[in-house]
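Entries read chain and fold; for instance:
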Amino acid sequence: MGREKHQASIHPQEKKAEAKSDTLDIFNLRDEVISDYRRYLESFLKIRDRKVREFVASELDQGQLWKDPLIQINPAYKRSADIDTLVSEGILHPDCRSYFPNFNFYHHQESAFRCARQNQPYVLTTGTGSGKSLSYVVPIVDDLLRNPNLKGVRTILVYPMNESAAVPKFASLKLGKDSTDV
């Protein structure tokens, strides 16, 4: 994003000066990581042929093994109905209030809840921090509350590794007397 490519190298003096700063410069941190990675790669690259060695060095200098940083603006998502509105409309079970108290959902979450309530499939594609996990978990909790006597596997959640932090948060929901039924 407008940042000139440069060879990733940080001199020891710069590292010392940077360590004294109270703020984190993410671009310098990126350069340090790349520099460390390059040194690691070069530690086991013993290329005898001069042309190949120069080619590899040139490719490393051009940053062929690492891309420029990706910088994105996280949009403000449109707020929509709160938990009480969705319960009063019959979209969510009244006991959802105790699992999601005082929640004010985003528009895309409410749309997902409405699809789920009508047994319609949906796919949700939104950015980081948009509440995709809740878009699936809230309807699961709603269904468990509406149908407490159904037995067997009811839902399988498949999460990528970068979402694994959300799993313990939702796994800790206690529904019913025996949480092992969840």
In short: The CA atoms of residues 114 and 135 lie 10 Å apart. The chain has two domains: 12-61, 79-174. Strands lie at 79-82, 104-106.
